[in-house]
Amino acid sequence: MIRIAKGSIPVLMILSCFASQAKNTTIRVLDVNKQPLANIVVYVEPEKKSTVIKSVLSDRLIATMDQVNRQFLPHILVVNIDTKIDFPNSDKIKHHVYSFSSAKTFEIKLYRDKSSEPRLFDQVGEVILGCNIHDWMLGYVYVVDTPWFGTTDVQGNINFEVPDGKYTLKTWHPLFQEVDQSFSQIIDITSDSQFTVHVKAAMNPQYSAYEEDDELDDY
Description:
Largest sheet: 5 strands, mixed
Radius of gyration: 18 Å
Number of strands: 18
CATH topology: Immunoglobulin-like
Strand content: over 45%
CATH class: Mainly Beta
């Protein structure tokens, strides 16, 4: 979940202004068998960056990566650059969240309920999350530098309201093979449009190790 901090009326006004001039753009992602893929990160980067949007949004966005039933929730969280992410713990046991990723290295030591403070994610790229107590816990934050981003629904679709212009369409998922991790496509938005992305390789198997019973009930 992403929310705009209080005092951000100018943000809403600027985004509403863009939306009033925007075109409805639908993007669908299909696997190698032409079946829809859900929870795929999709984003479009404008050819001409808007410094206005970036400067207004900076330090005003807050997202949440929770921990529920000894899993990160959501499993994949995509955010705009300069977003602060809160890491509450909704479990009754302690967690120890960390990341060694180059886009964000941090550690939140053993805690219940709320962490000390939200962490700022100010570099684009993939951030892999783990728990130092529960090895099977794996989550992802993907940071982008564009206001047009999200994840596909169960039908493999995502919709954006995008102003006229040229964009680079990109997709990402932690289980994509290299050929699909590097996918990008130039698209020209001049009217309501639909685009389909065909994944070229079968996705990698998902890590599924999970312990139902924890020897350390307190952790």
